[in-house]
Amino acid sequence: DTDTVVFVPGASDVGHSTVVVTDSPVTADGVDTATVTVTLKDAHGNQRLAGGETVTIDSLGAGYTVSSVTDNLDGTYSATISGTARDASGAGRSTAARHVLDDHRLS
Questions:
Q1: 25 close to 95: Cβ distance less than 8 angstroms
Q2: Whether the model pTM is above 0.70
Q3: Helices and strands counted in the chain (H then E)
Q4: Which is it for strands 93-94 and 26-27: parallel, antiparallel or unpaired?
Q5: Residue 87 and residue 29: Cα distance in Å, rounded?
Q6: What Å distances lie between residue 4 and 1, 9, 91, CA to CA?
Q7: Residue 39 — very low, low, confident or very high, per pLDDT cuts 50/70/90?
């Protein structure tokens, strides 16, 4: 006899889930965007294999706008972020990665 064993990830664990921001820094013009992708993982680092979770991506940095979150149905969730605030240097560039990773709320 041969039995099939299927391992499934456990419940999502925020401490092991990841946030990746691409296309950063974002020009502070309200048009340029970066993509924020959240990958949900369980307490052992195993990626969730399906969607259906509630994920909120919210930048607490002033001058940033975050789109609604898209459930990619594979354990990942994505949104876009744009900015209109200048950074401390006044150069007109806003580093979305810094603000999302430092100030994000993932729930």
A1: yes
A2: yes
A3: 1, 9
A4: antiparallel
A5: 12
A6: 10, 17, 59
A7: very high
